[in-house]
Amino acid sequence: MALGVFSSRVRPPSAQSVTLVLKASQSDDSWSRTIKLAREILNTLPENAVRKLFFLGNPTPFNPALLHTQQTNWRQANQHRISLITPVFESLSNNDETRILVIGSGCIFDLEDWEGAPILTRTLLVSLGNSLQCGRHLADELLNPTPQETLRHLQDPVQIVQLAGGGFMPIEWDNRAYRLALEQGKAVLRAEHSQNYALQLRFLARQPQEVRAFFTFASGRELETEIEFASEPHPLPAPVALTEEETCALRQAVHRQPFVCPQCGSQHNWHTLRCPNSIENYILEDWVYPSLRGSSENGFAVFQLTDSGASCRFHLGDVLWLGGNEVVIRHHSQAHIYRYDESSDAWLLTSQSFQLYHQIGEDEYAVLL
Amino acid sequence: MQFCFDRTGFPLVDLPDLEVQVHLLPVSKVQLERFIMEPNEFDDAWYETLLRVHGRVSYRRFSENERERVFVGGILPLEAVAFAQWLGPDFRLPTVIEWRKVYKRMEQLPIEESTWHALLEACSAPAKDILEQLRNQIRPQRWLELSLLTGGLVEWVVAESATEQERYAGLGKPRRSFQPGVWNPLQDIIRPVSLEQRVSYFGFRLVETKKRRNK
């Protein structure tokens, strides 16, 4: 079975965006404490961080910016609503990754209907008196916390993002905080303790929906989500056209013939990638192909050689797709070829070696930079 | 065997020689919650009272031992009538005669796979969850067992009676592990001490008169 190539983007759940849910059907004392905490949180969080306000049992969202003027009216309108979370959860979009903060006292009757649902893992219960859970622990819950404690839990930042799944192998990605690991033949793309977890990538997989994103938060909370598919494929870097001298050199080198160095004009062996005369000639970068100047030293260059000329595309990453179910993976200054084995759902190291000017398809040649 | 669905997506059985369609299952808590989540006189205090009499278990996952708790129990007949009115003008509690007719008809109806799959496709997600779990637990051959007309709760019905106190009664044959009474629903009518006293094993299902749909 040939693996498919897919494009995707990953956006970690925002720590700043909050949906506030209040319980209006409680004693006046509990309501006063609820509204006090809600207002302190609204005042402390950045503007627009609290996007929606709900009351338990009511699917209609209210404008949180008006809470301080409308709290009495809204309480009256909602205090006979039953303490059910389903109307609120059902009115939140499936794609809404905001944190949900529920404040109140006393049982939410239907919380157990959401046991194991991703939306409940994003929910923080704050009970100001009696637990909001009816005897079973189903979600994170703070008992009589201060506003600061609540905020600390609420802003629970992402610490680790991992992507993995059936046949998964990333082949292009735009955020260098993500590193590839092979764990018992399974590819895991992982970023830890980064300032930025946003990611666009192309990857191989059996089925795109088998690939999942796993988020670990500072509190230890974990969230598993589907990844979002990009309708537009992740753009490949634009190829750089080689000069006539570079094309001649390349044509010789791929046939393992000595070539005249476009950099210093001397003849070099076919396997020379860095010009040995560059220091003497005060050349700052020593690639024999001057077009490679400025390229990353942590990737691959893929040359395309045709009858009419040559071009080079830089591939910034640790993995290069060789076509079919094969990839080459960089380990420091070495590269090894792996093939996907369907029966074990694992990427296995092959005995094939990755060579200089490794041929990919008919007219493409890859080198490790 | 044909089905139609109430506003909560739960199935009613349409039996050809009956004037009414009848809920396939007793009314569940998830259905009742659709009703009480709308502003009305039923609030947290009322629901807490009901749940103290007959606890709640999630329709998404319930074990064989606790399956009665998926359904409404401990309800009073006038509360069941209020739910019926919310479902629609033609919904009501069944009479003793109607309930027993349904029982006898369901006794004769085997569960056919094609009907079963069509039912699951058409009903709401909670109804599907409940039906699938019930079928796995009970392994019924006939719709009677799956419908919990036997092995469920005692269900409120309208009894012909001169007094208001005897207007409502119960029919059903719960599992012994749930309620150890020995009743034959085709012979015995169960009358609670008071219509204002909650009894944990009293639930209900509703019928809808066919007139409205056939207009």
Folded structure, characterized:
The complex is a heterodimer of chains A (369) and B (215). In chain A, 16% of the residues lie in helices and 37% in strands. By secondary structure, chain A is an alpha+beta fold. In chain A, the strands form 6 sheets. Chain A has a 6-stranded mixed beta sheet with strand order 4-3-2-5-6-7. The longest helix of chain A is centred in the first third of the chain and has 17 residues. Chain A starts with a strand and ends with a strand. The mean pLDDT of chain A is 88. In chain B, the strands form 2 sheets. In chain B, strands 1-2-3-8-4 form a 5-stranded antiparallel beta sheet. The model of chain B has no long low-confidence stretch (mean pLDDT 93). With 215 residues, chain B is an alpha+beta fold. The chains are: A alpha+beta (369), B alpha+beta (215). Chains A and B meet through loops of A and α1 and α2 of B.
What's a concise summary of this model?
The complex is a heterodimer of chains A (369) and B (215). By secondary structure, chain A is of the alpha+beta class.
- Give the percentage of residues in beta strands of chain B: 5-15%
Strand order of the largest sheet of chain A: 4-3-2-5-6-7
How would you sum up the major sheet of chain A?
6 strands, mixed
- What form of chain B results from the Cα inertia axes? globular
Number of structural units classed as domains of chain B: 1
Count of helical regions of chain B: 8
**Largest protein interface?**
A-B, 19 and 19 residues
Shape of chain A: elongated
SSE run of chain B: EEEHHHEHHHHEEEEH
CATH fold category name of the largest domain in chain A: Rossmann fold
Average pLDDT of chain B, rounded to a whole number, is: 93
Q: Can you give the mean pLDDT of chain A? A: 88
Oligomer: heterodimer
CATH class of the largest domain in chain A: Alpha Beta
Low-confidence stretches of chain B: none
Broad structural category of chain B: alpha+beta
Strand runs of chain B, count? 8
| First-last Cα distance of chain A | 31 Å
